[in-house]
Write a structure and sequence with these properties.
This protein is an alpha/beta fold. The protein has a single domain, classed as Alkaline Phosphatase, subunit A (3-Layer(aba) Sandwich), CATH 3.40.720. Helices cover 31% and strands 15% of the residues. Strand 13 and strand 14 form a beta hairpin. Helix 5 runs parallel beside helix 7. The longest helix has 32 residues. The C terminus is likely disordered.
């Protein structure tokens, strides 16, 4: 993973659309928010399979002549071949994922297929196996590297807190670190095989995650119904093609003019589909909520795609609006949270009730309401235990619910 960061553009402020697997993965595939595609939560809890008639990035690239492949964790129901992938094998064993991906490259001879581009998703499970951590184990002497304060938490967050000792948190971190080392080794071997396949130098590589982990902030483990940066901010690295070694050249490697570096602009996983289409020279769809990140990659001073990013949670219904310096979170039960991130990066002091910040709260609430309108988010029509599950989207992909951007021809 470090090698990707050295060679690519790292986006320090990339955010997921939902801090849970399936809804976020639906965004990665469609470029839409979970509430737009009828996938509010994980498969079966409560979401049905992602509607196969939705337009996906794989379908768009197929239409442009790309061969498409998917290997690894899927978590969206159905079969990847129903969503635009020519070749697919879904499984949750990372070693098998790596071997299947390598087999695809090795069998796709770089001479026989020299003029057909491909789009390939390799989806590793780990470090998701963190859920098998045993809190009865302890690592003496461990101290979490951030404040342990838990004051002013919304009720739904406070209910999920744990009272583990620092030694128990040490076991959590050790387990997490081992999983990270394991998946990092798999990525390293994957990149080695990709290099030896002959496709490395003239390929774009994108590294991302569907969500994060609280890892002990606010005494919270794992993921859950909250909107802290620990689970909403995700890694995102995009590595451009370039000559890296003296192997055979399949094509002339383009000069992208992009040099490795970091970017601070806010962006969202909804921006990945437009970015991929842009990199593939495929015309983007105007109604998609995201925007290509290629201008930011080329110019570190380019403006962000939008002044704020948004995220969703399904039960209880929660919405987030985040700018560079502020975060506003609205709960369907009426609770609110407002954090001044520039002064309170650990999100410890909820100032939503402070009159001194009423104007900022109103501004962010207005931005959130405008987002609801643009994306047809049914948030205000929900009840406390309702899900954002639009039956029309799952059943017949009604244009009234999907819009032009959601329909597959």
């Amino acid at each position: 993973m470090d090698s990707l960061a050295r060679e690519g553009i790292s986006f320090d402020n990339a955010f997921c659309t939902a801090p849970i697997c399936a809804p976020s993965r639906a965004t990665l595939l469609t470029g839409l928010y979970p509430s737009q595609v009828g996938m509010p939560g994980n498969l079966g809890d409560p979401s049905p399979p992602l509607a196969t008639r939705l337009m996906t990035v794989a379908k768009r690239l197929q239409q442009a002549g790309y061969e498409t492949a998917y290997h690894g964790k899927w978590h969206l129901g159905g079969n990847p071949t129903d969503y635009g992938f020519n070749i697919a094998a879904k499984q949750s064993l990372d070693e098998v994922t790596r071997l299947k991906a390598t087999e695809f490259w090795k069998n796709r001879d770089w001479l026989d297929n020299a003029y057909r581009p491909f789009f390939h998703i390799v989806s590793f499970l780990n470090p998701h196996d963190l859920y098998f951590f045993d809190p009865r184990e302890e690592v003496p002497g461990f101290t979490r590297p951030w404040p342990k304060d838990a004051d002013q938490l919304p009720s739904v967050s406070a209910k999920r807190q744990v009272n583990w000792s620092e030694a128990e948190w040490g076991s959590y971190f050790r387990f997490y670190e081992k999983l990270l080392e394991r998946v990092d080794a798999d990525i390293g071997e994957l990149l080695h095989q990709f290099r030896c396949s002959g496709f490395f130098s003239n390929s774009w590589i994108i590294f991302a995650s569907d969500h994060g982990d609280m890892a002990g902030e606010h005494n919270l483990p794992f993921k859950g119904p909250w909107m802290y940066d620990g689970i909403t901010r995700v890694p995102l690295i995009i590595v451009p093609p370039r000559h890296r070694f003296g192997g055979p050249a399949v094509h002339q490697v383009p000069d992208t003019g992009i040099t490795p570096g970091r970017r601070k602009q806010l962006c969202s996983l909804v921006d990945l589909v437009p970015t991929i289409l842009d990199l593939a020279s495929v015309e983007a769809v105007a109604d998609l909520p995201g925007r290509s990140l290629l201008p930011i990659m080329r110019d570190e001073l380019a403006p962000a795609p939008r002044p704020c990013v948004f995220s969703e949670w399904h039960r209880p219904p929660i919405r987030m609006c985040r700018t560079d310096d502020w975060k506003y979170v609205f709960f369907l039960n009426g609770e609110e949270a407002l954090y001044h991130l520039a002064e309170d990066p650990d999100e410890l002091h909820n100032v939503a009730a402070d009159p001194a910040h009423a104007e900022m709260k109103t501004e962010l609430r207005t931005a959130l309401e405008q987002h609801f309108e643009k994306t047809s988010d049914p948030f205000h029509q929900l009840k406390e235990n309702d899900f954002i599950m639009n039956a029309a989207v799952s059943a017949d992909d009604s244009p009234a619910n999907l819009g032009q951007f959601g329909k597959s021809p």
